[in-house]
Amino acid sequence: MTRLTALLSATCLALPLWAAELGDDGLHKADWMRDTFKDLNEDLAEANAEGKRLVIMVEQRGCVYCAKMHKEVFSDPEVSDYIRENFFVVQMNLHGDTEVTDFDGEALSEKAAARKWGILFTPSILFLPKEVEEGQTAAESAVALMPGAFSKGTTIDMFTWVNEERYALDSEEDFQRYHARRIQERNNGSFD
Length: 192
Prior knowledge:
The model is unreliable at 4-20 (pLDDT under 50). By secondary structure, the chain is an alpha/beta fold. The strands form two sheets. Strands 1-3-2-6-7 form a five-stranded mixed sheet. The chain has a two-stranded antiparallel ribbon with strand order 4-5. The protein starts with a helix and ends with a helix. Helix content is 42%, strand content 16%. The protein has a domain at 17-150: Glutaredoxin, CATH 3.40.30.10. Strand 4 (99-101) and strand 5 form a beta hairpin. Keywords: Redox-active center, Signal. This is DUF255 domain-containing protein.
């Protein structure tokens, strides 16, 4: 093998896997994202049937923070495996024209839905409850919103906090206290 062939082979092997995950819409794709008709009532029913929680992940083309999350956080097997096993993730484009049907029955483009829900940053992750009250929008129904890019620890803690339904009104541990406890536990080596 020539040195050039060896160099090219090593370079190709060293390229991050996430680099090939850009879709035609310019958004990063993960194997745990679902391609749906974006009818949120149908998506919620399907998520519930699978025993998973519905998540809406809003991203945009060229978003450096979205790229950072996909490269540094979502690519981590602990995070990706947890999301894959527990969540039904529907990706939406902040500036997209694909039709979305909100829980309240309104059909509108992705970009109009993002404005309606007050989404200003990408990535933004809306975590939905198992049941949505009739007439509510996705934003009104959300049990948590994660606006922006965060570290692996914060991300896995948020997904876990939601999955364990710690947002319930009778819970004595809000996310900040939960996250602080988990950081301390990680620092003490209490868990991975």
